[in-house]
Amino acid sequence: MAISPSRRSVLVGGAAVASAAVAACSSAPSSAPPAAPPGGLDTAVPHPPGPPPSAVGSAGTRVAAAADIPVGGALVVEGLELIVTQPSAGQFTGLSAECTHAGCIVNRVEGAALVCPCHGSRYGLDGSVEQGPAPRALKSRPVTVVDGNIVLE
Known about the structure:
Distance between the termini: 74 Å
Shape: globular
CATH topology: Rieske Iron-sulfur Protein
Strand content: 25-35%
Oligomer: single chain
Structural class: alpha+beta
Number of strands: 11
CATH class: Mainly Beta
Largest sheet: 4 strands, mixed
Radius of gyration: 21 Å
């Protein structure tokens, strides 16, 4: 006569298998390139050419060539959670890419608007809220131009 496993032992065993699968998937490197955000211009970059950024928010990090940021537009640097805008020629502004609504990363530039993919908040090139649900402007992050490069201070 065969003995059936108890419901508890089946659930515990299933949970162990699921945990192992999640751990294996999260530690395996992905060979597929990241998908572009849906809609809008894809101006998000994982990091600029050259040496990779040292860490999110680290000072003195080269983020892009100034020529890569269009006048009246912006560039999203996802690896640094940073947006660099150029509202007028030669004027660069650094902003946190963290949406003030739910903390998602603002990753799309549509003309002169910075767009959050999670709930549709839109920000101006100065970081001000143009359309909610974001309750306040994006935080400022200090950037400067050094030898034609945008540097996070």
